[in-house]
């Protein structure tokens, strides 16, 4: 397929482009459309998720998309507001002492786990120790800076750190900070029968099909629980989700951009959501051709990223150059969204300067028929136009991360992901020598220093400035090709009140309500 044909195919069907402007964004002030009547406390909110939970043990759950199902029933030490900032959860306050080498947490009084076990400092201690040591822990690395957990009374703990870690509060807002009842640690069915201290208890679970949540008695934040329950249905098929919304079987879901016109034509409210995940091409910078910054910059100039947003995302996305969204405090104001604009002639000149006047070949992985696969095919054609042969090896999506990041096969990965609770987690994973998402371990020396700065910064302003230096360097070095951040279409039914999901792909349901059916 030629580059011209590729651009034509990418833009095909772009009749839905104007719909983005017609969809109000969901952000700090965004909400579902008003419904007639007051909130009905007896209503059940029904949500269709695109994927089930890997397991209900939060310390061993393997995907950030698990958070949607986990955090309804597991509370965390720290919560986040609608701008992603750390706010009190099971910990009411925290402070760094000892030159940043200790993090003290004050804990909420009177909280009990769903099995009646008290939540206290002793429970926090054993939870963090378990998260660091349990077999197949998915959060061990995130807690590596914690050398010891000390109990200082029933409602205070001290986390002794190996080095200052300003990212730790937001790390504790993620699965690493989810609290499991200590009495349930050894339950053989914990992966399917969670015992947390969250808003809702799980009363029924059919793996891959549905989860039934009902309010937990005495939850500490009653304003967060305004419905009689949440029914989570797992519908992997986009058509099924839209039909379920149309018939009133569900109250909310995320749509495919291709479905927005049909949904709006049926009178369904659609809003543009947000996420801290992004589409990207991650090169293995240990490969000789990708070790040259001129080649990496050529990869950017060869791609018309806006056409990917317009065609593949139907306008539901924004091009970006940094691995953090523009609403993040870590986002540098010094870097615009398009520092390497589409310029195939410049891409060819950079390749020639780097010693590749006839281009080169490299291999990537993708799963057939997926969004990842469609993006890979579009990139393949853009690169062919400048003489780069990007060969796509098709494999099962569940295998790709292990093959590329662990076994270090292949030369690059077109994919989507990246966002973490704290931006320092994202930069550590992608740009440091030991980062899991940096196959080959190639990292310019200054990045270890920059990472140390963003982790050790003692106040918000200093930390933001350190992140801005990091982002400027990431873009200047063109460490990866960041294509765009999607703005997924969030659809809600007519009875939905006060749905503020924060992240469209990992929604929380605090304060969601429904009006009574007429």
Automatic annotation (TrEMBL):
Keywords: Signal. Residues 1-21 form the signal peptide. Residues 87-400 form the Solute-binding protein family domain. GO terms for molecular function: peptide transmembrane transporter activity. GO terms for biological process: peptide transport. Coiled coil: none annotated. One of its GO terms (cellular component) is periplasmic space. This is ABC transporter substrate-binding protein. It comes from Pseudonocardia halophobica.
